[in-house]
TrEMBL record:
<dbReference type="GO" id="GO:0045454">
    <property type="term" value="P:cell redox homeostasis"/>
</dbReference>
<keyword id="KW-1015">Disulfide bond</keyword>
<dbReference type="GO" id="GO:0015035">
    <property type="term" value="F:protein-disulfide reductase activity"/>
</dbReference>
<keyword id="KW-0813">Transport</keyword>
<dbReference type="InterPro" id="IPR005746">
    <property type="entry name" value="Thioredoxin"/>
</dbReference>
<dbReference type="InterPro" id="IPR013766">
    <property type="entry name" value="Thioredoxin_domain"/>
</dbReference>
<dbReference type="InterPro" id="IPR017937">
    <property type="entry name" value="Thioredoxin_CS"/>
</dbReference>
<keyword id="KW-0676">Redox-active center</keyword>
<dbReference type="GO" id="GO:0005739">
    <property type="term" value="C:mitochondrion"/>
</dbReference>
<comment type="similarity">
    <text>Belongs to the thioredoxin family.</text>
</comment>
<feature type="domain" description="Thioredoxin">
    <location>
        <begin position="21"/>
        <end position="137"/>
    </location>
</feature>
<protein>
    <recommendedName>
        <fullName>Thioredoxin, mitochondrial</fullName>
    </recommendedName>
</protein>
<keyword id="KW-0249">Electron transport</keyword>
<dbReference type="InterPro" id="IPR036249">
    <property type="entry name" value="Thioredoxin-like_sf"/>
</dbReference>
<dbReference type="Pfam" id="PF00085">
    <property type="entry name" value="Thioredoxin"/>
</dbReference>
Amino acid sequence: MAQRLALQRLLLLGPRASHSRAFGSSAGRRSTFNVQDGSDFQDRVVNSSKPVVVDFHAQWCGPCKILGPRLEKLVAKLEGKVLMAKVDIDDHTDLAIEYEVSAVPTVLAMKNGDVVDKFVGIKDEDQLEAFLKKLIGA
């Protein structure tokens, strides 16, 4: 029971919990951000000079709680070559509709304001690495 609670806490808090305790994780924090509103999305995602992975998720979505931290970890390893925007579909329904998100998790790969790739559902680390490498052209 204690292990299950610890795992739930980790999944709910995600990597943010480790950021507060670790000094070397500031690059990961800068690479990943929560979208605040449509204007913020326009500024930080659509107008970004770097490729951006957009994670459409929801608090109630179990697979999202697994995929999000996994994706954040891999984005942080790329040390600023790609950014990650997190969009809660319950808070930003307008963005979910605009980008035709019909299920969560949905992850978009964006370059120069255009969607260049996408997937729906959970992926393992190898699949996520391949997705990110394709996005950055590595």
